[in-house]
Automatic annotation (TrEMBL):
Phylogenetic lineage: Eukaryota, Metazoa, Chordata, Craniata, Vertebrata
UniProt name for this protein: Endonuclease domain-containing 1 protein-like
Domain called ENPP1-3/EXOG-like endonuclease/phosphodiesterase: residue spans: 60-272
Residue ranges annotated for the DNA/RNA non-specific endonuclease/pyrophosphatase/phosphodiesterase domain, each copy included: 59-272
Signal peptide from the UniProt entry: 1-19
Matches recorded under InterPro entries: DNA/RNA_non-sp_Endonuclease_sf, Endo_G_ENPP1-like_dom, ENDOD1, ENPP1-3/EXOG-like_nuc-like, His-Me_finger_sf
Gene Ontology molecular-function annotations: hydrolase activity; metal ion binding; nucleic acid binding
Entry keyword set: Signal
Source organism superkingdom: Eukaryota
């Protein structure tokens, strides 16, 4: 075995691993669809306020998030689906310490009582359900692969203000329909990937946290030869209206209009 370089040695000694990373495609590729073996993440916006997070809890990466520190909401979370596991909802919320202190450790940490510059804290959502909004998960408990993954979804970097009746209505119905479809059509052994995102809207909660205008989700499952077996996209306004079921390319067209820039969901590699 070769001797470790000083940098690797330092990393090994400190047990240091990072959550906010330069390129999540490299650090946690396992959460992104890999048709034909090519890791194909959604579009990564390149401005300073967008941070790539490999979501880590208890030394395990559970999913990946592109986070917008200016709007204090995620753009999307990407994860693998392995079946309906019936995980319990754990209600301790976490934050991502490295977004406000680059020297912090690489794991998600407990919620903070004070407002943080680069991310939402739980207090930003206190009382907002009276105004019709609550913390809506992007990567949801219902799709979690394990209880530890379910626990890890309770981070504010995976949540955005969601219309309460939508969260418990048509959006929940969509999460269930997607899971049922995948269980039926994509066996757990086949690789099944989901990305769930939001589009920033005109208003903020408490002048701190941007309220999304839309929620969207998309899945892609691959067969044992890494060919795309099934895929579909879903888009809904942030109110309890019907959610549209469409092809990935139609979703990409809609999202490109909404984001005002070309946006692809699976690296632009799925034609339909
Ligand atoms: C991230 O890494 C992937 C895979 O190595 C590479 O294709 C991509 O260009 C990188 N992205 C950036 C912004 O460097
Ligand atoms: C980490 O794992 C341990 C043991 O499984 C568990 O008790 C603990 O609650 C976990 N931490 C979090 C934050 O979920
Ligand atoms: C999930 O969180 C709960 C509550 O904090 C904890 O008791 C449990 O051990 C955690 N489970 C895992 C697998 O980390
Ligand atoms: C979405 O539409 C497709 C094509 O009509 C259909 O096969 C599928 O069952 C619908 N729902 C889901 C969750 O994919
Ligand atoms: C699951 O997928 C792996 C890798 O593609 C393959 O080697 C294995 O035979 C599959 N298992 C079943 C039960 O099909
Ligand atoms: C939430 O959605 C419901 C049903 O679509 C709508 O009546 C209500 O006005 C929405 N709430 C907010 C705060 O937009
Ligand atoms: C299309 C395809 O390859 N599907 C595979 C999914 O996984 C099951 C078993 O886990 C295989 O039998 C299928 O062939």
């Amino acid at each position: 075995m070769k001797p470790l370089t000083p940098v690797l040695l330092l990393l090994a000694l400190s047990g240091c691993s990072s959550s906010v990373v330069p390129n999540f495609t490299q650090t946690c590729p396992q959460f992104f669809a890999n048709p034909d073996g090519i890791v194909s993440p959604p579009t990564v916006f390149q401005r300073q306020n967008y941070k790539q997070i490999c979501q880590m809890q208890n030394n395990t990466y559970e999913f990946a998030t592109l986070y917008d520190t200016a709007n204090r909401i995620p753009v999307y979370s990407a994860y693998k689906f392995e079946g309906i596991m019936g995980c319990k909802r754990k209600t301790n919320w976490h934050i991502e310490p490295q977004l406000d202190n680059s020297a912090a450790g690489g794991r998600m940490g407990p919620d903070r009582k004070i407002a943080l510059p680069n991310q939402a804290v739980k207090a930003d959502y206190t009382g907002t359900s009276n105004h019709g909004y609550e913390k809506g998960h992007l990567a949801p408990v219902y799709h979690a692969r394990s209880q530890s993954c379910s626990n890890a979804t309770f981070t504010l970097t995976n949540a955005a203000p969601q219309n309460c009746s939508f969260n418990h209505g048509k959006w929940e119905t969509t999460e269930i329909a997607v899971a049922n479809y995948l269980v039926k059509n994509c066996s757990p052994n086949n690789s099944t990937f989901i990305v769930t995102g939001v589009v920033p809207g005109p208003k903020k909660l408490k002048n701190r946290v941007r309220i999304p205008s839309h929620f969207w989700t998309a899945f892609c499952c691959l067969d044992n030869n890494l060919k795309v077996k099934a895929s579909r996209g879903f888009l809904g306004k942030n109110k309890n209206d019907p959610v549209q079921n469409m092809t990935i390319s139609n979703l990409e067209g809609e999202l490109s209009n909404l984001y005002g820039t070309v946006f692809s969901v699976f690296g632009g590699r799925l034609a339909s």
